[in-house]
Give the backbone structure.
Amino acid sequence: MAFKLPELPYPVDALAPYMSARTLEFHHGKHHKSYVKKLNAAVQETRLEGKSLEHIIQKTAGKSAQVDIFNNAAQVWNHNFYWRCMRPNANRNPSGMLAKQLSEAFGSIASFKKQFSQAAGKQFGTGWTWLYLDGDALQIGCMSDAETPVMNGHKPLLTCDVWEHAYYLDYQNRKDDFVKTFLDKLVNWDFVAQQLNENS
Ligand code: MN3
């Protein structure tokens, strides 16, 4: 069973004006699609063919001979997850148990957003900014290129793609504006809360 490009969970123009249809057409329809195609070609007739993305990521992480498989598998996983982290007409802030746990871990919701933004801002070059669970501890981290908490057995809760292809058409060099808009206008906090609940 080859991997497939999942449909976006909303129409391609649904996140405008914060993320344009043009960005989603390129990012989902070309970048993400290309990772899926390259991954299928790379695992064909290897022992990894037919295995889950998580299995492939964990088996190839840190192995230089399999870096091509790792990069494409992790990018497929990360993008599959990223689209689900956003929704149209999103609430500005989380509520309920998620809000309580974020406030306990990071001081307040505003402080969580500030720390997440700072982590994204510090990422030099391509990468992803994450909120994830390490055991029961909520952590913010930036990881380079295709790296993902999945490779370490951690549980991702939220991610922001900070590769230039994620924001350049809409924000050009204003990465900080993109991350702020992502946190205030695009995050599907219900999805983040669901990921947290799956763990308990
Ligand atoms: Mn991307």
